[in-house]
Amino acid sequence: MVSMDTLVSLCKRRGFVFQSSEIYGGTGSCWDYGPLGVELKGNIKRVWWRDFVQRRPDMVGIDASILMHPTVWKASGHLENFTDPMVDCRECKLRFRADQVDALPWTHFCPATKGNKFTIPPGEPCGHCAARRTLCPDCGKGELTPPRQFNLMFKTFMGPVEEDAAVTYLRPETAQAMFVNFENVLQSMRLKLPFGIAQAGRSFRNEITPGNFIFRSREFEQMEIEYFVNPHDRVEDRPADEYWHDRWIADCLAWFRRYGLRDENLRLREHDRDELSHYSKRTVDIDYRFPIGWSELMGVANRTDFDLKQHAKWSGKSLSYFDEERKEHVVPYVVEPAAGVDRALLAFLADAYAEEEVRGEKRVVLRFHPELAPVKVAVLPLSRNADLSPKARDLAAALRKRWNTDFDDASAIGRRYRRQDEIGTPYCITVDFDTLEDQAVTVRDRDTMQQERVGIDALEGYLAERLGPC
Ligand code: GAP
């Protein structure tokens, strides 16, 4: 598996991801997507939206504002429950998540070696004096405060006055907008259960211990679905919510596989009872084997009727569904597949990365699924030449109408192929001197490196067949 350092360095070098405000020393755990990153991220969101919203008769989408009414967060339980226990070092003032301190390597000034400084692996005692960590893992000197609950929502003020009445929050999840818009969407679209509302957009969490590149940041994007079912229905002899929960887990897993994540890097993880969020009856994570080890890629929760009931209570509005057959009002249950765009991008990047030796030279290649690849085609004239370059530029301009197309006529052809391999471009098209005679080009496949001669007339069809609907 590729290391995180290798990915971070590739992302910076080739314009996928930069540290936010880097020239000022960076902003804590915020990241900027560069020219290739924004394409890759856009492709992930577009394919997800197409597959889960546009291609399904039972799904619709919304795009809600990030700032919501502050009561939303009282009703949802986020004000009370969206907290992490944190401890502070009394000496260096660093802050840690109480439940993660023991998983950190720790600094120790060992009395058995005249106070020499050691960095000891997580959970292990000192090899010289057998002491275990009691102080700050970072500075090794300060005592840690008792754990205190820390709310992860970013507070802000609506309007020109900074007073308590104007306090609101940046949304920590996109989900709540689907609940507060339930009635609007139901009525305007005349939907029948079961149906889902999807949204992709930014969320914000003031994580105590962000890190590991874009895996955990303070500003990130989510792609969430709230799938409403009638809890009185049964499907295949099971309660509808339980049936749909398993169905969504399987569909999401299949989606990640379809776009390139390998089976051996995916697993399901059932949440223990004491780990469940305050709203959840059952949650299953789809974990991915990231360069940092197995970690959550997305979660699929059965949120029951918790959210609709809470918002009905706090808003005073009825948030129910009229079941025509049974002639009764029912508060739907909700199954929630919740994915992180940035984590998905990191997983696709890690799984696509390969290093190979080709004719004694190292080749780095990103084997992205063609629909995810940021650049689909590169047009490369064999050499910079008064006849070849214009011909190649015209071809690139024609292909650009349909696909994100690169043009590169600098340096040797072999180096240009390597540059395209490293950003995952599925096809390179070489315009050579024969092209001027036979109106054909050489198409090179990124994965097999096989080359094929294709007539310019047939090129668009050839690529469309291989690149998919894009
Ligand atoms: N509405 C439910 C919800 O938000 P979550 O498990 O807290 O559930 C869903 O978040 C997904 O959002 C996670 O599986 C992860 O992919 C992504 N995510 C959550 N916190 C994140 C963070 N700080 N940075 C990047 N992605 C994050």
Describe this structure in words.
The strands form nine sheets. Strands 3-11-12-20-17-16-15 form a seven-stranded mixed sheet. Helix 2 crosses helix 9. The chain has 470 residues and is α+β, with helices and mostly antiparallel strands. The chain is 29% helix and 30% strand. It is built from 13 helices and 27 strands. Glycyl-adenosine-5'-phosphate is lined by residues 173, 175, 205, 207, 216-217, 220, 222, 224, 296-299, 336, 338-340, 342-343.
SSE diagram, text form:
Layout: H1 4-13, E1 17-19, E2 31-33, H2 35-54, E3 59-61, H3 71-75, H4 78-81, E4 83-88, E5 95-97, E6 106-110, E7 116-120, E8 148-151, E9 155-157, E10 167-169, H5 175-180, H6 182-189, E11 195-204, E12 219-229, E13 234-235, E14 238-239, H7 240-258, E15 266-270, E16 282-290, E17 293-304, H8 306-315, E18 321-323, E19 328-330, E20 333-340, H9 341-352, E21 353-358, E22 361-366, E23 377-381, H10 388-400, E24 405-407, H11 413-423, E25 427-431, H12 433-438, E26 440-445, E27 451-455, H13 456-467
Parallel strand pairs: 3-11, 23-24, 23-25
Antiparallel strand pairs: 1-2, 4-5, 4-8, 6-7, 9-10, 11-12, 12-20, 13-14, 15-16, 16-17, 17-20, 18-19, 21-22, 25-26, 26-27
Helix pairs in contact: 2-9
Glycyl-adenosine-5'-phosphate is lined by residues 173, 175, 205, 207, 216-217, 220, 222, 224, 296-299, 336, 338-340, 342-343.
Notable features of this structure?
470 residues; alpha+beta; seven-stranded mixed β-sheet; five-stranded mixed β-sheet; 13 helices; binds glycyl-adenosine-5'-phosphate
Order the strands across the largest sheet as they lie in space: 3-11-12-20-17-16-15
Structural class, from helix and strand content?
alpha+beta
Mean pLDDT, to the nearest integer, reads 95
Tell me the number of helical segments per DSSP (H or I, 4 or more residues long).
Answer: 13
Oligomer: single chain
Bound molecules: glycyl-adenosine-5'-phosphate
In what range is the share of β-strand residues? 25-35%
Distance N to C terminus = 28 Å
Sheet of most strands? 7 strands, mixed
Give me the Rg, rounded.
26 Å
Report helical residue fraction: 25-40%
Any idea what the shape is? globular
Poorly predicted spans = none
Number of strands: 27
